[in-house]
Write a structure and sequence with these properties.
Oligomer: heterodimer
Radius of gyration of chain A: 18 Å
Structural class of chain B: alpha/beta
Strand order of the largest sheet of chain A: 2-1-3-4-5
Strand content of chain A: 15-25%
Strand order of the largest sheet of chain B: 3-2-6-7-1-8
Strand content of chain B: 15-25%
Helix content of chain A: 40-55%
Shape of chain B: flat
Number of strands of chain A: 12
Shape of chain A: globular
Mean pLDDT of chain A: 86
Largest interface: A-B, 30 and 35 residues
Structural class of chain A: alpha/beta
Largest sheet of chain A: 5 strands, parallel
Number of strands of chain B: 25
Low-confidence stretches of chain B: 15-25, 247-255, 353-361, 385-397
Low-confidence stretches of chain A: none
C-alpha cells in the first residue's frame, strides 16, 4: 500500500513534537496537515478529511476524549492518540470513545509508523467490507476465523469457545490494542464489563497453548493497564 | 494579677498616649476621669464642657449617658451633642434608664461620655457594673469620658465610710484609676459646695437622701477633699516620675516586699484586706490574700459565703488569692509564707474572743508572732462591715434535724437503760449505754455532742440514781460518776465530731484531687480534639453535678459546641451570645459572675498560652452549684487543663501538618538536586551530540554520525526512565496516588515487564521461576510493572553481561512474593536496608553506572502502598536479591473456568 495519497492530521500543541512528526511522516510519503488546538484540529478534520488523525490527549482547549467523540459522530477515520505513561485511564477512555490505537510518549519513529500502518490497514479493510482475509497467519500459527480453527505448525490446537472468541476478537484487530472492556463486551457480553480478571485468566491459558514461552510472550502482548494486542 | 498600681506597660502606654495627644495609640481607647470628692462639685459639668470643646475641634463625640441633674446649666451643655438613646429596663413596676452599651459599640464614635462610673446596672443587663461597660468600650478602641467620686474607689471605700459614716456600696476597682490616661480633679471649696447644696443645685440620688445630712457636714467634706487631693497628687507624682525617667526607660519597681493577708469569715476581714491593699500600694509590693481552712472545722454556708466575698474583694483589689487547708492556722500560714517569700503578714486583731471550740488554737496571732522569724507580722484593727448574707433555710432545717436526732438517741438510750435496770443491771451498764448515745451525737457535730453529754448526765441522775426522778443526789460517789461521765462524754464526742469533720474535708478534697488527677491523666494521652472535648465534658459533668458543654471556634471565629448534649442544655441564642462574648473577651461570664449574671450557665474561657481556644459552659444541675469559691477555682483549674489539652491537640495537628510539609519540602529539595545533576548529564550528552551533528554534519564520517545519533537515542531513553521514576516518586510520596488493585496473573505481569525491557536485556540471560501455586496477585499492574522494571534494570546494571538474572514468584494464601536476583557483586555490607532510602546510592559503584538513588526507593514505596514489604540481601552463592511481598488486599476470586465457559455456551 502506498502512503503517498494519505493525508495525516497532526493535532498537537507542542512544536518540537509536531516538527518531529512532520519530518518522519513526510519522509515516509505522507502529507501532513497540522493543528495546535482541538478547535483548529476539528476544523481541519472537517475541511480536509484526512486519512488518519494523530491526536495529542493533552490539548489546552479541550479534553482529547471529547475531540474523539466529536470526530466519531460523522467520521470513521482512524485516530491514534498520543499520551504520556501514567495516564492509562485517559488512554482507556480514548480507546473506548473510539480511538484506534495509542502511542506512549516518548516514542520512536518505528513504533509510530507501525501504529499508523496498522490503523490504515484496518480502516481500508473496514471500508472494503470486513469479510476479507478470514485466515490470519502469524508466524507458525494460523487462525481461521470463519472455520474456528487454530493451528500451530500445521497441528490443530484445541481451544475452548471462550479462548477462541478471545483470540478472534484480538485477531480481527490484529496489531491494534484492544481494551479489557472491549474484550469483555465482545466475548462475554455487556454484563461482564466489571470483571476484568476473566480476560486475564483466559489470556494466560491462551498463552500456554499458543506461545513458545508463556512468560515471555511474543504474540499476545499485554499493554499494561490498558488491554492486549495481538502482535502481527 | 490585677494591681491597682499601673504596670510598666500601662504606664508606658499612658506616657506615650500623653506625649502624642492627637495621635491615637494602639487598639485600646483612652479613659478620662473627672474626679471629685463629693456629689455637686461639678464633675458632669466639667465633663460636658470638655466634650463641647472637643466637638468644636471636630471630634466625633457622643453622650452615652449623662445623669439627668435637672439643672438648666448642665442640660444646656448637652444641647448640640449627639445623644445615644437610653435603654429602658422595666424593674419592679418602674422603668430604669440605662446606658445602652450595644448602641455605643454599634455607633463606634471616637469618644463616648458615660457619667457615674460606679453605677450599678439594672438587673438583666450584660454587666452588673457600669465600669464593666466602659472597659468593653475601651477594649474596642473607643475613648471614654466618665465621672467618679472619691468614696467609690474600692481601696478608699472604708476610709471614706469611717469619716463620713455613710457606707457606699457602689465601688470601682482601683485599676480603673490606673488605666485612666487622664484624671481631672474637679474641685470647689466645701463652703461653696454647702452653699450650692442650700440652693438646691446638688443632684442627690434618691436612695442616698436620708444619708445626706450626715454626709454634707463641713468637717466631712474637708476630710474627703483631702483624700481626693491626695489621691490625685499621688497620681500626678507617678506621672512626673515617668516623665522624669523618660518615656522609653523601663520602670523598675521595688519588689523586695511581698505581703500576705489572712482572711477569715469575720466581717472585719474586709477592712483588713483593704488595709493590706493600701500597705501593699505604698510599698509597691505584690500581695496575696489567704484563707486557711482548719481541717477540724466545718464552716456553715454563711461563713463560706463571707470568705468567698473577702477573697473576691482581695482579688478585685489586685491580690493573688489562695485557700489553704491545715490543722494549725499559724503553721499553714507560715509554711505558705515561706514558700512564697513573703516578707510581711497582715492579720486582723481578733475583735472578740473566739469560742474555744471554733478555734482550737486560741491565739493564732500570738503563735504567728512567736514563730514568724524574719517575717514582719502586722496586726490591724478590723471593723465589722454590714453584710447582707441571705438566710439559709435549708441549713437551718438540717440544724434542727441534728438536734432532733441527738434527742432521739438519748431517749432510746434511756429506754434501753431502763430495760436493763428493770432486770437488775448495774448503774455502770446505764452509764455505758448513755455514752453510746453521746458517741452517736458526736457524729452529728460538736454542738449536739456537748449538749448530749450534759443531758446524758442529767438523765442518768434523774432516772438511775437514788432518789429516782429527782436531780438531788444522795450518794456522793455518784458525783464522781457524773464528773467522769461528763468528761468522757465530752472528750469522746468532740473527738468523734472532729474526726468526722476531718474525714469530710479530706474526702471532699480527695474527691476533687482525684477528679482533677483523673482528668489530667486522661487528657494527657489524648491528641484528638473531639476526644478531649468529650472526656472533659464528661469529667466536669460528673465532678460538679452539672451539664458541661465545650464551645470551640470555627474558622470564622464563631463559637459552636463541638459535641455535647444540647437538649439538656439551655441552648438559646442568648446563651450562645454569652459564650461568644466570653470567647471574644477572654473573661468569665454568666451565672455567678458580674457579667451577664442572668445567663443559664457559667461560661469560662479555655485559655492556653496561645490564647483563648474555646469556652466551657457549666450549667449546674442543682441551684447554687457552681457558686462556691472553691468550686469556681476548681472549675477554673479544670478549664485551664482543658485549654492546655486543646492547645496540645492543636499543636500536634500543626506539627503533623508541618512534618508532612517538611517531608514534602525535603523531597522537593532532593528532587531538585536530582534534577540538577541526573537530568543535566543525559541532557549534556544529547545537546553535545546534537550540536556537533548540526555544526559539522558534512565533515563527520558516517560512523561518527551514527555514534552521535546513538548517543542521543540512549541518553534520551535514560532521561525518560529518570523522569518516569521521578514522576512515580512524587506521586507516591504525595500520598494522593489512588492505586487500582486488580487480580492479575503473575506470569502476565512478568511477561509484560520483560517485553518492555527486551532491548536492555540483550546482554543477559533471564530465568523465570513461577510456582505452580501462584496464579493471581492482587495489585496495581502499572505500579508493579514499574517496580519490576526498576529491579531488573538494577540487576542489569550491577551484574556482568552474559550472566543470568532470575525473576521468581512464590505464592502463599496471603499474598505473592516477587523476587529479582542477579549474579553480580551484591550489596555492600550494611547497605541492605539503606538502598531503599531515597537518593541513597550504593558505595563502590563505578561512577558511569551510578543510579539516581530513586529506583529502589520507588520499589519500596510501591510495596508500601500495597501494604507489603520489600527487602534486599546477598545470595550465598553470590549476587544480590530483592524480594517484594505483596499481600492480597481481598479474598482471591473463585475462577471456575468451566462455569464461565458454560455460561456462554
Amino acid at each position: 500500500m502506498s502512503s503517498s495519497e494519505h493525508l495525516v492530521a497532526v493535532i498537537e500543541d507542542e512544536a518540537p513534537i509536531r516538527r518531529f512528526l512532520k519530518a518522519s511522516l513526510s519522509v515516509e510519503g505522507f502529507r501532513v496537515v497540522e493543528a495546535t488546538t482541538a478547535t483548529e484540529g476539528l476544523r481541519i478534520v472537517t475541511q480536509q478529511l484526512p486519512a488518519l488523525i494523530l491526536l495529542d490527549l493533552g490539548l489546552p482547549d479541550m479534553d482529547g476524549t471529547e475531540v474523539i467523540r466529536q470526530v466519531r459522530e460523522w467520521s470513521a477515520a482512524p485516530i491514534v492518540v498520543i499520551s504520556a505513561r501514567g495516564e492509562e485511564a485517559s488512554k482507556i477512555a480514548a480507546l473506548d470513545a473510539g480511538a484506534d490505537d495509542y502511542l506512549t510518549k516518548p516514542f520512536g519513529v518505528g513504533e509510530l509508523l507501525a501504529r499508523i500502518r496498522v490503523a490504515l490497514r484496518h480502516a481500508s479493510r473496514r471500508s472494503s467490507d470486513g469479510a476479507a482475509d478470514p485466515i490470519l497467519q502469524l508466524g507458525d500459527i494460523s487462525i481461521d476465523l470463519a472455520g474456528r480453527v487454530v493451528t500451530k505448525k500445521e497441528v490443530e490446537i484445541k481451544l475452548t469457545k471462550i479462548e477462541f472468541d478471545l483470540l478472534a476478537a484480538l485477531a480481527r484487530n490484529a496489531g491494534k490494542v484492544v481494551t479489557h472492556r472491549q474484550l469483555l463486551k465482545e466475548v462475554w457480553g455487556p454484563h461482564a464489563v466489571h470483571e476484568p480478571h476473566y480476560v486475564r485468566v483466559f489470556m494466560a491459558n491462551l498463552r500456554k497453548k499458543l506461545e513458545a514461552n508463556p512468560s515471555r510472550p511474543v504474540l499476545l502482548i499485554t499493554e499494561q493497564g490498558v488491554g492486549y494486542r495481538l502482535r502481527e | 494579677m490585677i494591681d491597682s498600681r499601673p504596670t510598666p506597660e500601662q504606664m508606658l502606654h499612658r506616657a506615650r498616649a500623653e506625649a502624642t495627644d492627637t495621635e491615637r495609640e494602639g487598639d485600646r481607647g483612652r479613659l478620662k476621669l473627672f474626679f471629685g470628692y463629693a456629689a455637686g462639685v461639678g464633675k458632669t459639668y466639667a465633663m460636658l464642657q470638655a466634650a463641647r470643646q472637643l466637638r468644636a475641634d471636630g471630634k466625633d463625640i457622643v453622650a452615652g449617658y449623662v445623669e439627668p441633674h435637672g439643672r438648666v446649666e448642665t442640660e444646656s451643655l448637652l444641647d448640640g451633642l449627639e445623644q445615644l438613646p437610653l435603654l429602658e429596663v422595666p424593674y419592679r413596676g418602674t422603668v430604669l434608664h440605662e446606658f445602652d452599651l450595644d448602641a455605643a459599640l454599634a455607633r463606634k464614635p471616637e469618644i463616648v461620655l458615660v457619667d457615674e462610673l460606679a453605677h450599678s446596672n439594672a438587673p438583666g443587663m450584660r454587666h452588673v457594673k457600669r465600669w464593666q461597660d466602659v472597659e468593653e468600650l475601651l477594649a474596642v478602641g473607643i475613648d471614654v469620658f466618665s465621672t467618679v467620686n472619691v468614696q467609690h474607689v474600692e481601696s478608699l471605700n472604708d476610709v471614706v465610710a469611717e469619716i463620713s459614716g455613710v457606707a457606699v456600696r457602689e465601688t470601682i476597682p482601683d485599676r480603673l484609676l490606673a488605666i485612666a490616661s487622664d484624671i481631672v480633679l474637679v474641685d470647689i471649696t466645701p463652703e461653696e459646695l454647702l452653699e450650692r447644696l442650700k440652693q438646691g443645685k446638688v443632684y442627690v440620688p434618691q436612695q442616698a437622701a436620708r444619708a445626706i445630712d450626715r454626709f454634707f457636714r463641713r468637717e466631712n467634706l474637708v476630710a474627703l477633699r483631702e483624700i481626693a487631693l491626695r489621691q490625685t497628687a499621688e497620681r500626678v507624682h507617678e506621672d512626673v516620675e515617668i516623665a522624669r525617667r523618660g518615656v522609653a526607660a523601663s520602670v523598675p519597681w521595688p519588689t523586695n516586699d511581698r505581703l500576705l493577708v489572712c482572711v477569715g469569715p469575720s466581717p472585719s476581714s474586709a477592712k483588713v484586706v483593704r488595709s493590706a491593699k493600701r500597705l501593699a500600694d505604698r510599698l509597691g509590693a505584690p500581695w496575696i490574700a489567704v484563707h486557711v481552712q482548719p481541717s477540724s472545722i466545718t464552716l456553715d454556708p454563711s461563713q463560706e459565703e463571707q470568705i468567698h466575698r473577702h477573697l473576691l474583694l482581695a482579688e478585685r483589689l489586685g491580690a493573688e488569692v489562695a485557700k489553704l487547708v491545715g490543722d494549725n492556722i499559724s503553721t499553714a500560714l507560715l509554711q505558705f509564707a515561706d514558700r512564697r517569700n513573703v516578707t510581711k503578714i497582715v492579720i486582723g486583731k481578733p475583735d472578740r474572743p473566739a469560742s474555744w471550740w471554733r478555734y482550737p488554737s486560741p491565739s493564732v496571732v500570738d503563735r504567728l508572732i512567736e514563730r514568724s522569724g524574719s517575717i514582719d507580722v502586722l496586726i490591724v484593727r478590723g471593723v465589722d462591715e454590714p453584710t447582707s448574707v441571705p438566710s439559709q433555710p435549708a441549713a437551718a432545717y438540717v440544724g434542727w434535724l441534728k438536734w432532733l436526732a441527738a434527742a432521739a438517741a438519748l431517749a432510746v438510750a434511756t429506754l434501753i437503760a431502763w430495760a436493763f435496770h428493770a432486770v437488775g443491771a448495774t448503774e455502770s451498764t446505764s452509764v455505758m449505754i448513755y455514752l453510746l448515745a453521746v458517741l452517736f451525737a458526736g457524729r452529728l457535730g460538736t454542738g449536739p455532742a456537748i449538749v448530749s453529754s450534759a443531758m446524758a448526765v442529767l438523765l442518768f441522775d434523774v432516772f438511775f440514781t437514788q432518789p429516782y426522778y429527782s436531780i438531788t443526789v444522795h450518794d456522793s460517789h455518784h458525783l464522781v460518776t457524773f464528773a467522769v461521765m461528763l468528761a468522757v462524754g465530752m472528750i469522746t464526742s468532740t473527738l468523734t465530731a472532729r474526726a468526722r469533720r476531718q474525714a469530710d474535708v479530706a474526702q471532699n478534697n480527695e474527691r476533687r484531687t482525684e477528679a482533677l488527677y483523673q482528668l489530667t491523666r486522661r487528657l494527657a494521652g489524648i491528641i484528638d480534639r473531639r476526644q478531649v472535648v468529650e472526656d472533659a465534658e464528661r469529667a466536669i459533668a460528673e465532678v460538679f453535678n452539672a451539664h458541661a458543654i465545650i464551645f470551640l471556634p470555627n474558622e470564622r471565629g464563631k463559637i459552636l459546641p463541638l459535641v455535647g448534649d444540647l437538649t439538656r442544655f439551655a441552648a438559646s441564642a442568648s446563651e450562645f451570645a454569652a459564650a461568644q462574648w466570653v470567647f471574644d473577651h477572654a473573661q468569665a461570664a454568666g451565672l455567678g459572675t458580674d457579667t451577664l449574671p442572668g445567663a443559664g450557665a457559667l461560661y469560662l474561657p479555655l485559655t492556653a498560652p496561645s490564647g483563648v481556644l474555646g469556652v466551657l459552659a457549666v450549667q449546674p444541675a442543682a441551684a447554687n452549684g457552681v457558686r462556691s469559691f472553691s468550686d469556681r477555682h476548681l472549675l477554673e483549674t479544670f478549664a485551664s487543663h482543658v485549654g492546655l489539652a486543646l492547645e496540645r491537640s492543636q499543636l500536634s495537628e500543626q506539627a503533623q501538618k508541618s512534618r508532612v510539609e517538611a517531608e514534602t519540602e525535603k523531597l522537593r529539595n532532593s528532587l531538585l538536586s536530582a534534577v540538577s545533576h541526573d537530568i543535566r548529564t543525559p541532557l549534556a550528552g544529547i545537546a553535545g551530540a546534537g550540536s556537533s551533528l548540526a555544526a559539522s554534519f558534512d565533515s563527520l564520517d558516517r560512523a561518527t554520525r551514527y555514534e552521535l545519533l546513538a548517543t542521543i537515542n540512549d541518553e534520551s531513553e535514560r532521561l525518560t526512565q529518570l523522569v518516569e521514576n521521578l514522576l512515580h516518586m512524587t506521586r507516591l510520596s504525595s500520598g494522593k496516588v489512588i492505586i487500582d488493585r486488580q487480580w492479575h496473573p503473575v506470569e502476565d505481569i512478568i511477561g509484560s515487564t520483560l517485553g518492555r525491557m527486551e532491548r536492555h536485556l540483550a546482554g543477559h540471560l533471564v530465568d523465570i521461576h513461577i510456582d505452580e501455586t501462584v496464579q493471581l496477585g492482587h495489585f496495581d499492574a502499572v505500579l508493579i510493572e514499574q517496580m519490576l522494571v526498576n529491579l531488573i534494570d538494577n540487576a542489569i546494571k550491577y551484574s556482568p553481561s552474559e550472566t543470568t538474572i532470575e525473576v521468581a514468584a512464590h505464592g502463599s494464601a496471603s499474598g505473592v512474593e516477587l523476587s529479582v536476583s542477579d549474579r553480580g557483586k551484591g550489596f555492600m555490607p550494611g547497605d541492605e536496608r539503606r538502598v531503599f532510602d531515597l537518593f541513597y546510592r550504593g558505595a563502590g559503584v563505578k561512577s558511569d553506572r551510578r543510579g539516581t538513588g530513586i529506583g529502589l526507593a520507588i520499589c519500596s514505596a510501591i510495596a508500601d502502598v500495597h501494604g507489603g514489604s520489600i527487602e534486599a540481601h546477598n545470595r550465598p552463592e553470590g549476587g544480590a536479591v530483592v524480594c517484594a511481598f505483596l499481600p492480597h488486599g481481598e479474598k482471591p476470586p473463585k475462577i471456575s473456568e468451566q462455569a464461565l465457559e458454560q455460561a456462554t455456551q
